[in-house]
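Q: Please design a sequence for this.
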């Protein structure tokens, strides 16, 4: 069923041929967006992304209608969805991690969904392997373990590039494989794991590893078909306005999938293991530099105080970005 997130009047029983010229123009002003993935299991993560699309379009001032994507009902990989979004017929928008090769033919919405927080990752482990994982003190120790990750995820490529032993599988298989000791750890973004509590609870052998924090420049972005530049423009404008007003930061800090993660995961007390990421496009790297309000110490080292600063520091970059959207 369609969700209309704008002020409209529906006249039941009348087809488009019977609308007045004014009503026809009114219909033409509405942006139709096929964004709801019917193959996805309902979760807090899915809600975060779809609600963010709605909030961004509202902030852009563009009237819109959110529709279902015309895709199979069974689970489909992001790589397959990129093809469906690219042809512009079945789905209009994809939310996925930066640096994925399958997004090269899509238009980037250059505002990172978690303001750089998607590049901070913790691990799920198997309770039976607690002692083995506890021996890890640095990146070299992590290289001696097996890390589970998605088949087509850019995260898998990044970890492989940095010498980690990566076991690839479909998302739907990863949790069961970890429980079956097919690998030692499963890498999850700090902002994803909060939305997976229900899924994790179905695997009682799994536990969040308490000491390690993996980091590399990355985040989730929205990507749209090249046939929908007006949608890219609206989402970019809306998300930038949300960022400048503080609404995007508040949304991250308050949504059930993302709130309190800094405290619940004890992010500030963890050992940070830094990886390089050579898979970012120039536009993705620039977006992460522009919109990630991270804190650094006097020696230039990264300090994990708040992945999302509140409020954002009023830097010249911030002022330049925000002046352009007001």
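A: Design:
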């Amino acid at each position: 069923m369609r969700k209309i997130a704008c002020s409209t009047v529906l006249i039941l029983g009348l087809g488009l041929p019977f609308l007045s010229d004014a009503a026809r123009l009114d219909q033409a002003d509405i942006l139709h967006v096929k964004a709801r993935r019917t193959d996805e299991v309902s979760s807090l993560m899915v809600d975060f992304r779809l609600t963010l699309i709605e909030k961004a379009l509202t902030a852009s001032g563009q009237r819109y209608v959110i529709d279902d994507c015309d895709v199979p009902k069974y689970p489909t990989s992001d790589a397959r969805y990129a093809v469906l979004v690219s042809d512009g017929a079945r789905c209009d928008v994809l939310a996925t991690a930066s640096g994925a090769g399958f997004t090269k033919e899509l238009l980037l919405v250059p505002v990172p969904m978690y303001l750089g927080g998607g590049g901070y990752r913790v691990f799920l482990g198997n309770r039976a392997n607690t002692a083995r994982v506890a021996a890890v003190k640095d990146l070299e120790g992590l290289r001696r373990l097996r890390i589970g990750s998605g088949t087509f995820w850019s995260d898998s490529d990044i970890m492989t590039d940095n010498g980690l032993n990566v076991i690839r599988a479909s998302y739907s298989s990863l949790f069961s494989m970890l429980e079956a000791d097919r690998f030692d750890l499963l890498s999850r973004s700090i902002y994803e794991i909060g939305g997976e509590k229900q899924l994790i609870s179905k695997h009682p052998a799994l536990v969040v590893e308490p000491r390690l924090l993996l980091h590399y420049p990355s985040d989730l972005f929205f990507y749209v078909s090249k046939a929908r530049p007006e949608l890219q423009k609206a989402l970019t404008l809306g998300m930038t306005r949300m960022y400048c007003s503080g609404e995007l930061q508040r949304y991250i800090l308050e949504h059930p999938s993302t709130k309190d993660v800094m405290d619940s995961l004890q992010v500030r007390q963890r050992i940070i293991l830094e990886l390089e990421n050579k898979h970012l496009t120039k536009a993705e790297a620039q977006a992460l530099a522009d919109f990630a309000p991270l804190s650094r110490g006097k020696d230039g080292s990264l300090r994990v105080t708040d992945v999302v600063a509140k409020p954002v520091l009023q830097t010249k970059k911030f002022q330049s970005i925000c002046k352009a959207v007001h």
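Q: Thanks. Anything notable?
A: Residues 3-116+219-263 form a domain with the D-Maltodextrin-Binding Protein; domain 2 fold (CATH 3.40.190.10). The longest helix spans residues 44-60.
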